[in-house]
Amino acid sequence: GEYEGGSEEEFKGMGNRYDAQVAVLGRSLQSKMGDLKYFMVGCGALGCELFKNFAMMGVACGDRGMITVTDDDVIEKSNLSRQFLFRNFNVGQSKSVAATNAVKGMNGAIKIDARQDRVSPATESVYNDHFWEGLDGVVNALDNVKARQYVDQRCVFFGKSLLESGTMGTKCNVQCVIPHRTINYGGRKDPETKEAPECALHNFPHNINHCLSLGRSEFVGMFETQAGQASQYLEKGDKFVSDISSKIWSEGGEVLPDGSGAAKEANEVLGGVMECLGEGKGLVRTMDDCVAWARLKFEEYFSNKIKQLVFSCPEDMKNASGAPFWSPPKRFPSAIVFDAEDPVHMGFIIAAANLRAQVYNISGYKPVRDTTVFKGMLSKVQVGAFVPSKDAKIDTGEKKPEGEEDRMEVEEGSVVDQAKAALGQLPGVGTFGGLKMSPLSFEKDDDSNFHMDFIGAFANLRARNYSIEEVDFLQAKLIAGRIIPALATTTSLVTGFVCLELIKLLQHGNKAAFKDLQCNLAMPMLMQIDPEGPPKSVSRTVKTKPDPVNHPEYEEEEDVVTLPKDGFTAWDRIVIDKGDLSVQEFLDWWKSEHEVSCTAFAVKIGDAARPFYNQFMAGTKANLPLKMSEVYKKYDTAFAGSYFMPECSIQDADMNEVETPLVVYKFK
Known about the structure:
Elements: H1 19-25, H2 27-34, E1 37-41, H3 45-57, E2 66-70, H4 95-106, E3 112-115, H5 129-133, E4 137-140, H6 145-158, E5 162-168, E6 171-177, H7 198-202, H8 208-236, H9 238-248, H10 259-277, H11 287-312, H12 343-359, H13 371-378, H14 404-411, H15 415-425, H16 451-465, H17 473-480, H18 488-506, E7 516-520, E8 525-529, E9 540-544, E10 556-562, E11 573-577, H19 583-594, E12 597-605, E13 608-614, H20 628-635, E14 643-644, E15 646-651, E16 657-659, E17 662-666
Parallel strand pairs: 1-2, 1-4, 2-3, 4-5, 10-16, 11-17
Antiparallel strand pairs: 5-6, 6-7, 7-8, 9-10, 12-13, 12-15, 14-17, 15-16
Helix pairs in contact: 1-2, 3-4, 3-18, 8-9, 8-10, 8-16, 10-15, 11-12, 12-16, 16-17
């Protein structure tokens, strides 16, 4: 008899391990599955389960199939409880390589290319256009939003399907990203997590979570962010300075349109560099220097800042409405006097000094935890007396009077002038005698690296300042490390649903066949939802209130037009493939093809948007007769690509702003 959707032969077994699957899905689909070229990003808990499923299903087990898997992480002992492809003897090995070996033991026919390169902008020469264009699809097995967003951007750019999933304890989700049919991962915003206000973290903590959050923030700021910025300066020298300058000023010395914003960022970066390399600030050369630095940081964090806060906001202070300022949940603080016999005090000194020594690669450094060694070094440290300032500004979290914020900005002066002065104050790279710095990345699972020692001691000292209950090392690790217990049951369930959606992709079902998943095993709750379509940008009228304070009734209307006129989604492109045009020919193309004017455009090269043309910047008009590739190579002489993405400012004949999808300019 005839089977629905095909002949009896189509669903007849072939005498191999896939016969049960063929009986349901058919030989044609099984063949497609075997020839799939898929990219799996990540090989942790989700990746191991997906890998096992792929081997059992026969994915990439055909002659033309290939699964490329990448994970730059190595196996740790804590992974073994939930990543079942790994064993004790795999600890320290690459996740992608160890998983590949385990999966090949399950199905020797599977074709796998195991890599250890992180998928990021830095590896676009590895995962290049040829690589992405040769894929049938991508499956994510990641554990962080930033990496997910990047992979999603690449899938949208190359028009590839993406199967996205994630778990959090008993909760899990699946999202199907299908080109031109569904919204992409980055097109949907997760609800914002509730974060404590900055003023609560820095001045008015009232629970241990606030103290731990600030401790982790300070760890990242000092040992990762600032150390990374200083390390870049030491490596690049003059290029570091020129890279910053080129984002603020043009070649002719004019401030660029976004120069003020770039200068503000530059001031933060340069402040971090000076904090690490400035004499008398954070620069250390010996272990004694590291201990002295740690002791002064103790005084700054747990004594001086508290004394300043109490001076600026005394205990009897009233707020704007006349009520006591120090009302619950605020807690009135008290400064700590350093005591070398207190284990928490010494715990902070030991952790901070060891971390500083690791960052600066102190000669002959070995991890030290012996308190007697540190007490000897501390006896030589001079701590100056602190005098509170009357001019110190304290963020109380209260709403500022109208106009005060503007006045503060005026008092700050020009951020551009500040950046210029800061660049001039940088010490010469040659004065550091070949110093190499090693920024640290927070790692919660290694109890010997001093990371959690620092954060735990910081949090408990902060808790003492505010009479908050302290926590032990394990509690601090759970909270600061944001550890949510991983359940193998949740992982196995969500990856099973991912594989069902993969089968639907191979069946070329319409959009209605795909289902996103939201599940919570603890409730229990399981919802399968039709995927949301891609949001469409359409022509519209935007209403704005130029002066909402004095004239809230007055509105201005501005027409925003789209190109093409019927709108576009994130999946759409405007591709300009006319060879290597001059800048003038590029501008003329918009006029001749779409009857609109391109008034300015820039191209992101490195970290900066480089202006190729701007009708209001006289210096860019010299680019008009130059080829687009020539202008690009002025900023990046090593550029060997065949296209780039200019960001264009477009207007129609009525001077309305014109929105466009991504513009891809091909010149080869």
